[in-house]
Design goal:
- The protein is mainly beta.
- The protein has two domains: 129 residues, Immunoglobulin-like, CATH 2.60.40; 228 residues, Glucose Permease (Domain IIA) (Distorted Sandwich), CATH 2.70.70.10.
- 5% of the residues lie in helices and 35% in strands.
- The strands form six sheets. Strands 12, 15, 17, 18, 19, 20, 22, 23, 25, 26 and 27 form an eleven-stranded antiparallel β-sheet that branches. Strands 1, 2, 3, 6 and 8 form a five-stranded antiparallel β-sheet that branches. Strands 4, 5, 7, 9 and 10 form a five-stranded antiparallel β-sheet that branches.
Length: 434
């Protein structure tokens, strides 16, 4: 292909320097009271110096928070509330931060504020900011460093937000603020910015029934605060940046002794989840039905990353309402019982749990999404209409790979069983489904 020369106007460099000067000036004068700013002179009546304009009092057309910012912010989704098994309503979403200045900006604190009340709902400070705000394309899994993060010029970073509030205190919108320093050549300049304010969704989380057989189940790699490959799985697909597994959960069968497998961990049959029935958690119409992919043969090790079309292996997608699709993934080879166009009812068997696609050990991958395909899609919150909370697993088991544990025994902290309705089981909980 012939290269076509591109003319780069000199204005670009000048504009960058102007932006830098503006930001530096703003950083140095941010604390100057408005009363100390000289008022603009109004041309006398009949003046021929230019077109007349309606005088505006200083600041009358701007909010107090208006100002130049080094960072450009956007969200990947509309924050949507969901009541979780800790009794709090969670708003889990991602905030993209791009440094538009020619100087680096060191962020020490990111805050999420309710602009209506002024209450600070979440503070990501120096002790956790390197874990919760990561450079796009990088991972903070296991990150325990402290101190500010430095966003270089033209770099984009991702803040993994989880705002948890009381059920009667869900805000109508969320405002984002950062505190930090512009890295000037002579000396850092303190610069605090008010970034975007976004509305929260008014939709209720979708209630569903159990997608698996009655029994005790380990809820792994779920929402909302801890690092997991679901919650932190940002995926740029066809130019769209989404988190398609934000509220996804992997289901693993647990026996009466708290074990998930017994015997030889290299064999599928050793896992209690294998070939357990998968049932429709809500009524609807089948829009995808995929079978024929093989189960993993890498047990107990992790499988090689498959082609994108095989990510969820054998799977079924059911449309349960406008823009709402339930995905059931990693089914056993040859077990899918429904086809596209079928109408399914709650509790109807769809197939059996397997370990096809990008799966470590046999489990059901379950999620609600806004598109009929796994990629690209956005993940939506959902709740179980009822379940019993039995406890939680305090330690992260790497990427669901239960076969790499010394035994099938889960490190399980039991609690007094409690009945729950219309809640989302949080990551690493153990629940009983009927």
């Amino acid at each position: 292909m012939r290269r076509i020369p591109v003319l780069r106007p000199r204005l670009a460099a000048g504009a960058g320097l102007a932006l830098a000067a503006t930001l530096l000036l703003a950083a140095c004068t941010a604390d100057v009271p408005a009363a100390e700013t000289p008022a603009a002179e109004t041309p006398a009546a009949g003046s021929s110096s230019g077109p007349s304009a309606t005088p505006v009092a200083d600041g009358e057309d701007l909010t107090p928070e208006t100002g130049f910012t080094a960072l450009v912010a956007s969200t990947t989704t509309t924050p949507a509330p969901v009541l979780a098994s800790d009794g709090k309503v969670h708003l889990a979403y991602e905030l993209l931060l791009t440094n538009a200045a020619p100087l680096a900006y060191a962020v020490s604190t990111l805050e999420v504020v309710d602009p209506a009340s002024g209450d600070t709902l979440l503070t990501i400070g120096p002790d956790v900011i390197q874990r919760d705000v990561t450079r796009l394309g990088a991972s903070a899994e296991g990150e325990d460093a402290t101190g500010p993060i430095t966003i270089g010029s033209a770099e984009t970073w991702m803040a993994w937000i989880d705002v948890a509030v009381e059920p009667d205190a869900v805000p109508a919108s969320l405002q984002h603020r950062v505190s930090g320093e512009l890295q000037r050549p002579d000396a850092p300049a303190p610069a605090d910015y008010v970034l975007i304010t976004v509305p929260t969704s008014t939709a209720e989380a979708q209630a569903v029934s159990s997608p698996v057989a009655a029994g005790d189940w380990y809820m792994s790699e779920g929402c909302c605060a801890e690092y997991t490959h679901h919650r932190n799985g940002f995926a740029p697909i066809n130019g769209r940046g989404l988190t398609p597994q934000r509220f996804a959960i992997d289901f693993f069968k647990v026996d009466e002794e708290g074990k998930t497998w017994e015997g030889d961990p290299s064999k599928l049959e050793s896992y209690f989840s294998y070939r357990q029935p998968i049932v429709a958690a809500a009524s609807g119409t089948v829009v995808r039905s995929v079978d024929g992919f093989a189960n993993t043969d890498a047990l107990p090790g992790p499988p090689p990353i498959p082609p994108i079309i095989e990510t969820v292996g054998n799977h079924v997608v059911v449309e349960i309402g406008p823009g709402k699709y339930l995905l059931y993934g990693h089914m056993d080879t040859g077990s899918v019982k429904v086809k596209v166009g079928d109408t399914v009812e709650v509790g109807q068997e769809l197939g059996l749990i397997g370990s096809s696609g990008n799966s470590t050990t046999p489990h059901l991958h379950f999620q609600l999404q806004d598109e009929p395909t796994f990629f690209p899609t956005d993940s939506l919150p959902w709740v179980f209409d009822r379940f019993t909370l039995l406890g939680s697993v305090p330690e992260r088991i790497w990427d669901d790979d239960l076969g790499l544990q010394p035994s099938g025994q889960l490190p399980f902290d039991q609690v007094d069983p409690s009945e729950r309705t219309n809640e989302l089981p949080l990551d690493r909980t153990v629940i009983r489904l009927e």
